[in-house]
Amino acid sequence: MVRSWVPAVLFGSLLLSATARAELFEYGPALCGDTVNFYCLEVGNTIIHQEVKLKDGSTITREKKTLETWETLFPDETEREIVKRINRRNTPLYRKQKIAVPCDMAGKTYMDFSPFPLKIEPPGEKLLVWDPALLAYGAYDPEGNLVRWGPGAGGKDYCQDVERGCRTVTGEFRIIKIGGPYYRSGKYPVDCVGKQCALMPYAMFFKSGYAFHAGRVPG
Questions:
Q1: H/E/C letters for each residue in 137-153?
Q2: DSSP 198
């Protein structure tokens, strides 16, 4: 089941909130006001050292300014995953972007920062929950244990290509079709053909024209 709520989605069924919508705002900076648990970083330049080989065969080291990346800011993979999920981001950083960083990540994983409860009443089947207010989804096993959570964006008030609103439908649904890792839309962008159409990895359709799928969307 899939639930979308004010909270929510079930892998077999889906529940989507009556106010499900995606707003273009930065989720991470909103956490910066919680100075007890988070601090804020502003993305800038970093200095890297490059070895350059000269014509005479010798080498020199030159400094080069380059934009900071997730990898340069958070070399530890576990901490990087925590910060990316908290900021609802899987896209490259940009200059002067603000990101929230937990004050304490020692010995923790992204599951320790879940916006969803780690345990719910056993649903009896796999359950996928999407909460538009949190810009996040949570996946539960039949026993009610949270097994994974991550960023999740919904529709918008207006989509330029179709010239109308394209909010995510709300309610409780069941998954009716699942696509593979290279599944593509058959409709969007409008008039697309073949590889011109939007990639929708692992699309899980729960209503005609609507699917929960992987993608690179900032939150």
A1: EEEECCCCEEEEEEECC
A2: P
188-209: pLDDT as tens digits: 888 888 999 989 999 999 988 8
The three-state (H, E, C) secondary structure of the chain, written as one string = CEEECCCCECCCCEEECCCCCCCCCCCHHHHHHCCCCEEEEECCEEEEEEEEECCCCCEEEEEEEEECCHHHHCCCHHHHHHHHHHCCCCCCCCCCCEEEEECCCCCCCHHHHCCCCCECCCCCCCEEEEECCCCEEEEECCCCEEEEEEECCCCEEEECCCCEEECCCCEEECCCEECCCCCECCCCCCCCCHHHCCECCCCEEEECCEEECCCCCCC
3-state DSSP call for residue 11?
A: coil
In sequence order, the β-bridge partners of residue 49 are 63
Nearest to 14 by CA among 177, 217, 218: 177
At 34-53, the pLDDT tens digits run: 999 999 999 998 876 778 78
Amino acid 63: pLDDT: 77
Residue 9 DSSP symbol: B
How far is the C-alpha of 94 from the C-alpha of 182, rounded, in Å? 28
